[in-house]
Amino acid sequence: MSLTERELWAVLHGMCLGAVFLLAFSGVMVELWGLRKELVTEAGIQKSVRRLIIGTWTMAVVAWLTVISGTYIVYPWYRAKPPVQPAAAVSASAVAAAEKNDLTQYPKAYLMASPNTSQWHTFGMEWKEHVAWFSPILVTAVAFIVSRYRGQLAQDKMLRWSVMTLFVLSFAAAAVAGLFGAFITKAAPLH
Amino acid sequence: METKQTLNNGPAAAAILAAGIGSFAFGLAVCLSQAVKAVANFFTFSVAVGPLAGKTTSSIVVWLVSWIILSLMLKNRQVSLAKVFAAALVLIALGLLGTFPPFYDML
After folding, report:
1. Residue A167, class by beta-carbon neighbours within 10 Å (0-12 exposed, 13-18 middle, 19+ buried)?
2. Which residue range forms the structural domain that includes residue B96?
3. How many C-beta atoms surround the C-beta of residue B66 within 10 A?
4. Residue pairs spanning A and B at CB distance below 8 A
């Protein structure tokens, strides 16, 4: 039972960081939804705000780590081109894979090699790699507003609804990215 | 008895509008990169990552700079949050459209 370095990073990116973000959403959303002065006492609002500040900033940090690790660590392995003409600079394992016409080390090339799987890249991965970046931007705005306005969110309905909408959009973007990430990893796993 | 001071909504409006501007900038960067090869080359800040590195980095810069500018402009102001939020939603929607492959493949 072991994982390669690539598999480990893919797990960290998707199943640890990405999953934490998605799982944390419901808890923070419930807090935001219930943050109304007619429902909660002043002491309750203060406790709720404390949880919201921790929750939203944790999600913001996790969202940034997810997209940065995905883009700069995992994605280059996904999009690496298989060597056409083995050269001295090409690693021994890449040469061996090319000689066997084995594209499984090159997920993008593997998916694009067949019309049955190419849309996992041309639609799925192309959308995922972009839409994911909306999530940290939007949740950072949410975390900032929660930290600055605190209990005022319980009184200002427009502000609370604006924050909740941005938060749902942030989650939706992460969910699309996570869903396609899971499907693409199933169709062409990183080894 | 302690009285609570209500904060101006300007900083919140700045954060929301900047998020919209950053989202729109990202959608625009994706479309431009797809439509113009020179832009894609310009955005290739990292060979391993490809144009995605430049598209994301540039958009984050636009987002942060616009947030700073809007924060300075609105820090002591009370604005119509409904209008600002509607504008931000339009910008986010356009940004999302710009990153949707069937849309930018038409360019």
Report:
1. buried
2. 10-101
3. 19
4. 83
Amino acid letter, residue B67 = W
pLDDT digits (tens, 9 = 90+) for A134-146: 999 999 999 999 9
d(CA A21, CA A135): 10
pLDDT tens by residue, B84-98: 999 999 999 999 999
In a domain, residue B5? The reply is no
Rounded CA-CA distance A143/A148 in Å is 9
- Please indicate whether, in this complex, the C-beta atoms of A158 and B81 are within 8 angstroms of each other: yes
**Residue A102 scores a pLDDT above 80:** no
Mutate which: A81, A119, A134, vs B, most B CBs within 10 A: A134
Total length of chain A: 191
Six token digits for residue B26:
């990202």
- Is residue B51, in this structure, part of any structural domain at all? yes
